[in-house]
Amino acid sequence: MSTRLSLLEILNKNKSTYISGQELADQLGISRNSVWKAIKKLQEQGYQIDSRPATGYRLVSSGDVLSPDYIKENIPYPCRVHVVEKTDSTNNLAKTIADCSTPQIIVANEQTGGRGRLGRTFHSPAGAGLYMTVAFQPDFGLDRAMLTTAMSAVAAARAIERVTGLNPKIKWVNDIYLDGKKVCGILTEAESNFETGRIEKIIVGIGVNCFEASMPEDLNDIATYLAGPQKEFSRNELAAAIACEFFDMLENFDKFSMLREYKSRSFILGEQIMIFNPAIARSIGRPENRLSEGIRARAIDIDENGGLVIEFLEGRRSREMETLTTGEITVRRAYD
Q1: Quick check: 122 and 111 in contact, CB under 8 A?
Q2: Residue 293 DSSP code
Q3: Could you report the per-residue pLDDT of 188-225, keeping only the tens digit for each?
Q4: 231 and 173 in one domain?
């Protein structure tokens, strides 16, 4: 954990009193000047830290400080928790951990290169969201691994509901929505051994927009955040809740009950949707200059492998049924 995060954790545990610069330096094993520099940097980032000469420092407002101890203490499953101030991507960081026989949880205060499906970026400003990855060594094969994203979506939706009192919905295959806007994205990756054919590591990245922050202009109308919910929450609480739901479903896996809940939380089933995929566009008879346009269809069901069963509503395949797997496919509601 970085000096700044360690410093924040000490101040957060002692909000009612001032702690001298020397005491902080002794606890952190750094110089008083380094403490002063870290305090200044935290104040620049928006943390309200009161400073009094000959007295010390006190955290007035925590700014929702991430705490590995809090997260770990609230997860009743074996795991290791790592909190970092900044990284390009928690999924990338998880890939550097060789041994995931004990599940690893990586949480970052900020991502500089957060990733989503199909090479998209995930906006990850400091202090505004929960950016976490769960990496583990599976004891199951490819068939069940294919359902990991769906399972993760259910776990995230359950946790958000439990912690905030809100009612999130799932958009196939990996997005969590609130009031018609995206609030959470999930990116699942796997590392395989080509010689044995085994999946050696599954990496599940979960990004949640927690608090209001400036967003790129192209996201203003399609993304939202959890702030201002029915009850207050912290990112620590949400991280622990997501991990608990995830590990509980992993340990007590029930494919059919999980898919039943996934479907019950879906907000596209029975709805008209637009499908974006050049190969599918060709299959319905689209000319080459229109392959990037959406294809009208209806979302019918989720199959036993997590695929989306759809009915085409246009082109030469109108009224035909097909099951979509994740791949390079984007799905939106027709009226979004």
Answers
A1: yes
A2: S
A3: 999 988 777 789 999 999 999 998 877 777 776 788 99
A4: yes
